[in-house]
Amino acid sequence: MTTTTPTPAPRVALVTGGSGGIGRAVVERLAADGFALAVHYSGNRAKAEVLVEEITAGGGQAVAVGGDVADEQAMAAAFDAVETAFGGIDVVVNTAGIMLLAPIATLDLDDLDRMHRTNIRGTFVVSQQAARRVRPGGAIVNVSTSVVRTQLPAYGAYVASKAAVEGITLILARELRGKDITVNTVAPGPVATPLFLQGKDEATVAGFAKATPLERLGSPQDVAESVAFLAGPARWVNGQVLYTNGGLA
Prior knowledge:
Elements: E1 12-16, H1 21-32, E2 36-41, H2 45-57, E3 62-66, H3 72-86, E4 89-94, H4 109-133, E5 134-143, H5 147-150, H6 156-175, E6 182-188, H7 194-197, H8 202-211, H9 220-231, E7 241-244
Parallel strand pairs: 1-2, 1-4, 2-3, 4-5, 5-6, 6-7
Helix pairs in contact: 1-9, 3-4, 4-6
């Protein structure tokens, strides 16, 4: 009589903001690593569903889940949906975020509040759900920005929100002592996404590219590689901010 070894269930990842930019690249990279994916969207369900179809057509497993990351009830429902679809969650990657730029002296405070809601409260709500639900051996990865360190003018409010993301990450890593769950942040440099390119002329973009020793903008795939490292083999990296920026000082 022959016996067969059952195929182990894939690890499961939820990627917020997974339908575009860095989020999409992370979804594609983790799918290539064999993860079952939950592609989160806030407003563009159709875009998330197209990505789900692409993953499933390639032999992977994926579902789309929606909701405002700052709404704790919506996020609890999203996490419930992932657990129903796949049986649990191993990795949460929180790429959802917005960037609104202006000097501190002239910033519209409504823009400050919008970034606070999505970037700070959203990260906190998602991290809270992840802390309760991610299985042992799992990982939580948030996204900050290298501008926390480079301190460019006009980025004051955005940097304030992302510095908060780093603080949430570093505290949560220590609060999850004994759970075998890592918590880290990736801090990209200038990456060629619509979020970064919006409102910048060619000379400004070229200046950002020249600022790195590699003399190019990053790609979403560059950031996804760092996320995949933290989501998978990097079990001894915990409570850290990983600058993924081509050597930007």
